[in-house]
């Protein structure tokens, strides 16, 4: 049963779309990115979000102080780390923690072993980028990994390829951002189509 995370919400319309379509998780990006928002905006958006949808804060090489400040201010459910955060950093929080790993080849998977965390987010390795590139990687490399790890699959997922991704990887969660956007903003019809496809795989 793959659950759905829509990442990079930044407008009130995005919240309305999420409330109507009910993904399991939504992500707010506090890292430098075209989807970055400040904590005041995030708090305001979260106040309008359906309480059944869990909130994920996306961080990139932030300090413990910054993460704790934003987490408490916004009352986030999950902390997602996308930078070079070491295991001890990720292990120091009471909230649920997901760590992103950029997958280039099978050697990339070795890094997962050092982390005792709630979820491993697997994204595509692109030189100079920390995610959100809209590019996929070879899913066959991680075909059996979800048997032993809680996997959030990211990287170039769209309504057109998400069914194949779920069949091959069997992730616990699929994480989509650019794949449900048109010209950089979330698109209701694309979100709806993707969520229908994922839920169809679960039937």
TrEMBL record:
Q: For the N-(5'phosphoribosyl) anthranilate isomerase (PRAI) domain, which residue ranges apply?
A: 4-196
Q: Which domain of life is it from?
A: Bacteria
Reaction(s) catalyzed by this protein? N-(5-phospho-beta-D-ribosyl)anthranilate = 1-(2-carboxyphenylamino)-1-deoxy-D-ribulose 5-phosphate
EC numbers listed for it are 5.3.1.24
Could you state a single Gene Ontology molecular function term? phosphoribosylanthranilate isomerase activity
Q: In which pathway does it act?
A: Amino-acid biosynthesis; L-tryptophan biosynthesis; L-tryptophan from chorismate: step 3/5
For this protein, the record's InterPro entries field holds: Aldolase_TIM (IPR013785), PRAI_dom (IPR001240), RibuloseP-bd_barrel (IPR011060), TrpF_fam (IPR044643)
Q: Show the Gene3D superfamilies listed in the entry.
A: Aldolase class I (3.20.20.70)
Record-stated family: Belongs to the TrpF family.
**Protein name, entry field:** N-(5'-phosphoribosyl)anthranilate isomerase
Q: Which gene encodes it?
A: trpF
